[in-house]
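Example 417, ligand flavin-adenine dinucleotide.
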Amino acid sequence: MAQPAQHVVVLGAGTAGTIIVNKLRSRLPKEQWRITVVTKDDVHDYQPGYLFIAFGTNTPAQTRRSARQFLPEGVDVIVADVARVDAPAQTVHLTDGQELAYDQLVIATGTTPRPDQTPGMLGPDWHGRVGEFYTLDGAIALRGALEKFTGGRLVVHITELPIKCPVAPLEFAFLADDYFRGRGIRDKVEIVYVTPLDGAFTKPVASATLGHLLADKGIVVETDFMIEEVDQEAKLIRSYDEREIAYDQLVTVPLNMGADFVAESGLGDDLNYVPVDKHTNRSTAYDTIWALGDASDLPTSKAGSVAHFSVEIFVENFLDAIAGRPLTHSFDGHANCFVESGGGKALLLDFNYDTEPLTGMFPLPKIGPMSLLKESRANHLGKLAFRYVYWNALLPGHPIGLPAHMMMAGKIPAEPA
Ligand SMILES: Cc1cc2nc3c(=O)[nH]c(=O)nc-3n(C[C@H](O)[C@H](O)[C@H](O)COP(=O)(O)OP(=O)(O)OC[C@H]3O[C@@H](n4cnc5c(N)ncnc54)[C@H](O)[C@@H]3O)c2cc1C
């Protein structure tokens, strides 16, 4: 049978790439459009699960699946690493020598923790006394390190923004408080939260709420800390302005960066993120290239929720673009983030490019059942239930009843702190 005339290549089969190929396969005629997805391995992790693995409340088996399992019939799957994109020639080069010519290219290769970018981080204590929970291996190792920890100073540290799920280190600090209380040793553990920001979070209103929670739990916050190095011998982190913070256990979020091939292809910014129009996810340099999810430079949180909402908008615009029509849909930067706060509760933040997190109920005005910008048990249960929704509805591209745009009905601005 003759190959379809048009070819869309999707790089990455994580949250964004998987939803995209599922949605595009059902919307693009098979006889006209071939779809190829490239993934560097046959692994799909539910990354929010890493946080719970570190505290022993989730297992790796609940968190990892085969990537192929979620990719639909009628899509060519190539397991290989991307070496380079030749954008003028509309060709992707893989490290195994294969070349893929494309009509449209979607870059959805996410962002990766890069401990190699901070001097001293990858020393002998890496994944021991210097822990992380942004990879499955790191979360498993950290679980062991926390189990052995009997007291001293635990430092939770962010290297630089942006990071994926910017609330995850806060959640880690809250859950650490809970975890040591549960073990009856909280009075022997000092928890210090070290951030390059001037407050707890990137959004001022949420930062005030989350900052209060840190204070209530006796977690010390060290702001404006730009790390220069980890000194594993002296067991301390040092900043460019010569501040030193000693640790007995460090839990760091290393610098996050987009894929190296993005830089090698001349398509990225300083951190290898692809500059895109923030309302359409189309590359600002090439009309045939789009970047979705964490791989893009969208000025909103790098989060699974953003990947999901922006893909909904992208699919409509992509269909417009290939039909030669002007793009008719506009992404508003909508992000929706659960924040585990310990004690079986969580907060929920809902915001977009223009609107700070508001108070009110979610997803139904006045009914909820989730409350915004406030701790509740329903929010915690919502966060736990989301893993099931992710595997069974979100990844296969089914509607999950959450609007892509931020809804204002029933929402109220928070009182100033
Ligand atoms: C600890 C933690 C907690 C989190 N909690 C939440 C949360 O509660 N809520 C939330 O919304 N988000 C959360 N996130 C963030 C969320 O997981 C990501 O934002 C989301 O997965 C982004 O989707 P993506 O498709 O852009 O990237 P990913 O899902 O990371 O997928 C990228 C894919 O590209 C592939 N790839 C990379 N480079 C190459 C290459 N060179 N060649 C081929 N393939 C390549 C990778 O293998 C991967 O499959 C969390 C993340 C972490 C680490």
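Summary: Residues 11-17, 38-41, 47-48, 50-51, 81-82, 108-110, 133-134, 164-165, 168, 259, 261, 293-295, 302-305, 307, 337-338 surround flavin-adenine dinucleotide (CB under 6 Å).
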